[in-house]
Design a protein that fits this description.
By secondary structure, the chain is an alpha+beta fold. Helices cover 31% and strands 28% of the residues. It has a 6-stranded mixed beta sheet with strand order 6-7-8-3-9-10, sandwiched between helices. A 4-stranded antiparallel beta sheet has the order 2-1-4-5. The protein has a 4-stranded antiparallel beta sheet with strand order 12-13-11-16, with helices on one face.
Length: 335
Amino acid sequence: MIEVKNLTKRYGKNTAVDNISFVVNDGEIVGFLGPNGAGKTTTMNMMTGYIAATGGDVNINGFDILKEPEKAKKQIGYLPDTPPLYGDMRVYEYLDFVCDIKDIPRKERKAMLDEIYETVKIKDVRKRIIKNLSKGYRQRVGLAQALVGFPDALILDEPTVGLDPKQIMEMRDVIKELGQRHTVILSSHILHEVSAVCDKLIIIDNGKIVVQKRTDEFENMSSEVFNIRVKASKTKDEMMEIFSGFSPVFDGIKEEGTFDFSIYAKDGYNDRREEIFRICAGKDIPVLMFKPVIFSLEDLFLKVINGEYAEESDSLALDDNKSEEVFEFDKKGDN
């Protein structure tokens, strides 16, 4: 549905978007994430034809946004970070005006707008003046204008910005419903909401794509790393030697006679947890805790913007609680 190839935007010597490429498949909801100034809005503005690219191509449902702008833009519903609203208009007047802009035939408007009112939950405020609406309702009206004409692709820039928690949950439900009939790409800083709604996530930083993965892949990224707490009358070095085959990182001593480690208990499809228990049992070392490390999207996002994440290795940096040193796990067994 959306194909971006080598997209670049320069302002003089400053590169805002640097040769990025990605694909959004038909029916997907894709989250576009990144810190402020990363290039998200610039990318979306180029995708919609709002600003010209310095280089690269954008195809929307098979139409090139530069070579066939009118046909391409008919495939897009766009909600900018600041909704394009006229505050002195009533909601229904504004949406009728948008219908004029998009050349929607008069005979088709009532049925289409009634469906949009129901979809974005603004039927009760359709006769109110826009400037008198709450932030949440103004955001809904902005989303309604993006839906006029029922375009195949929706591009939503920060659709939940400024909303309270209840409004965010309501907008999340609306976006999920839209994803059943449209291809959606949205940017946001609310990582939990994005991970709950999106099928795929793209993280951009300094104008470059750093990570592209399906949401379920993020959930499985840390499945190989486990925290283990054992009880033993041994030294730290002796315990490190016992777990040497599992790339141990010493996490500290929580209470006298116990040791905490982070270890690789899985290696791809090879589950080594039983091997670990047998080693502990053979050396009479009780296992008090054994649990997977939960690697959240927030953890990943912070690693990306701090320059600590490399997608090629999917490596995780784990902090030693007893020092400021950071250990990087290496899948080959070194630490």
